[in-house]
Fold this sequence. Notes:
The protein is an alpha+beta fold. It contains 4 helices and 8 strands. It has an 8-stranded antiparallel beta barrel with strand order 1-5-4-3-2-6-7-8. Strand 6 and strand 7 form a beta hairpin. The longest helix is centred in the last third of the chain and has 14 residues, at 178-191.
Amino acid sequence: xxxxxxxxxxxxxxxxxxxxxxxxxxxxxxxxxxxxxxxxxxxxxxxxxxxxxxxxxxxxxxxxxxxxxxxxxxxxxxxxxxxxxxxxxxxxxxxxxxxxxxxxxxxxxxxxxxxxxxxxxxxxxxxxxxxxxxxxxxxxxxxxxxxxxxxxxxxxxxxxxxxxxxxxxxxxxxxxxxxxxxxxxxxxxxxxxxxxxxxxxxx
Length: 203
């Protein structure tokens, strides 16, 4: 049984070729309450002693800083993730402890003050859909121009990625057991059958 203390993210993942974009876009739009464009910058941080932690058998907590580029005056949001629960406990969806922290001021300095170093940076450009308690992100990754720090537009044949997940951290309670959120992501998996293969992954 999952521990009561944690809040969780429940998620499924998939990817598809650009030629399938309009069919998949149409089907997701049809079954969502809202949709808007997304262009986000994400920076992944890991603890400076990540190697020692792993060697000691401790699973390091990774931090991801995300900022929405299309929103005026958008703030950085920091997410922390732990390792997904085992496939034995949750065979159908990725369930992992996570927390969100809104940061006032410079999130990147805040992360380094916590003893984290920057591991990688990407931009994601695409669409975000809301469906009940879920958010569906559909995007292509853009790499960063090392000279300017600006995103390089994705190549036309870059794969599209899809993440179907709980919009906010959820707790495993009697009223809202995790199984309810697992069912919600599996509903989307069923809706997309034949067009898009959504699956669990250990990330």
